[in-house]
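From the methods appendix. Each design record in this collection lists the tokenized structure first, followed by the designed amino acid sequence. Records were kept in a plain field format so they could be parsed without special tools. The example shown here is representative of the layout used throughout.

RECORD:
FOLD TOKENS (349 positions):
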């Protein structure tokens, strides 16, 4: 029988496991504290647990946090972490320092099944979902890399994969990450889940009352263009998507983020900007314009800077907070839409 990984179990599941092993429930809470709050992953080091319990535990369970196979530093200060998972697949996370912030971009799937035309991850297709342990593991591993006392301050689910297509594992990971007593204690306001626009998933996430930020990859202002760029639009069109966004519960000063990748002569005209402003009317929105990041074989180009700034001006004039997000880590293949890791071992030559 393969041993269960304690990383990725909810504190309540750790309690259940303790009882199953003949110990008291609070032993499970101690386990959660060691793993999630103190980042101690060695059962031997969990000195307040009885020896006997630790022995039973070691027979049934492991504490497994992925070790980055490679750490790729970018010239802009960001770092890509490449992990090899059980079964040999590779995924990546990206650490991005910015003033006081240290944002970690987290993956939720190996590859992605949504095939957006401008995204390199989409070219891979979907290999498999990550487990809750593999999702939480990325955060624990990244935090371990940082200097003593430091950790990622903000988490964005914008790495490989579609978070809402791996719903159960995503929500379980979010519960562990936001549990203030026995989990990692992240404020939900510092966590952002980005979606390609899965309407049922957005509704479900809203009902979880997790209060995390929602980001929507919009990328077009007409169904015609959006369906061409993003096949998912044929299942959930702009009207359905924006209706779901309007239903998503927000705290008083919270807003929904809209990502809009700027593609030259595809979605970057002033007409698009005006249409976008109209579409977002009545929504507490913040727009992030992402200049297209190039990859080999891509059929798109980044618009000239002046075009991007003119687009931004239209939105600003309409009263919509709009920033241009210059992706980090472009030189190391870590920028938005560039994440693709091969499953093959790196060649030795
Ligand atoms: N599947 C989720 C999470 C991925 S987030 C989603 O679609 O939201 C990654 C963001 O980068 C998405 O907004 C995606 O559309 C965008 N992106 C993809 N390819 C890109 C590229 N080549 N240049 C810039 N942004 C890109």
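DESIGN:
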């Amino acid at each position: 029988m393969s041993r269960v990984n304690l990383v990725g179990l909810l504190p309540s599941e750790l309690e259940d496991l303790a009882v199953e092993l003949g110990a008291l429930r609070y032993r499970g809470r101690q386990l959660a504290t060691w793993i999630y709050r103190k980042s101690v992953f060695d059962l031997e080091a969990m000195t307040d647990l009885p020896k006997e319990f630790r022995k039973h535990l070691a027979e049934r369970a492991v504490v497994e946090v992925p070790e980055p196979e490679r750490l790729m530093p970018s010239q802009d200060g960001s770092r890509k972490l490449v992990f090899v998972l059980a079964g040999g697949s590779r995924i990546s996370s990206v650490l991005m320092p910015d003033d006081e912030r240290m944002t970690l971009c987290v993956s939720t799937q190996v590859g992605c099944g949504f095939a957006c035309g401008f995204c390199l991850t989409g070219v891979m297709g979907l290999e498999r979902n990550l487990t809750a342990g593999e999702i939480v593991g990325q955060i624990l591993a990244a935090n371990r890399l940082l200097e003593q006392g430091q950790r990622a301050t903000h988490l964005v689910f914008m790495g490989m994969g579609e978070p809402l297509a791996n719903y159960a594992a995503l929500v379980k990971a979010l519960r562990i990450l936001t549990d203030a007593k026995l989990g990692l204690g992240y404020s939900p306001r510092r966590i952002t889940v980005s979606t390609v626009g899965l309407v049922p998933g957005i509704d479900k996430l809203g009902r979880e009352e997790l209060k995390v930020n929602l980001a929507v990859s919009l990328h077009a202002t007409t169904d015609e263009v959006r369906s061409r760029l993003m096949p998912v639009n044929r299942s959930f069109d702009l009207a359905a998507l924006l209706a779901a966004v309007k239903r998503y519960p927000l705290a008083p000063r919270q807003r929904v983020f809209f990502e809009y990748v700027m593609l030259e002569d595809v979605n970057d005209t002033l007409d698009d900007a005006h249409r976008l402003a109209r579409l977002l009317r009545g929504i507490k929105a913040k727009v992030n314009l992402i200049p297209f990041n190039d990859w080999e074989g891509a059929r798109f180009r980044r618009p000239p800077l002046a075009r991007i700034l003119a687009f931004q001006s239209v939105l600003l004039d309409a009263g919509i907070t709009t920033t241009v997000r210059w992706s980090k880590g472009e030189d190391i293949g870590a920028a938005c839409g560039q994440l693709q890791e091969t499953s093959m071992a790196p060649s030795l030559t």
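APPENDIX NOTE: Residues 116, 118-119, 158, 162, 194-196, 217, 259, 261, 290, 292-293, 336-337 surround S-adenosyl-L-homocysteine (CB under 6 Å).
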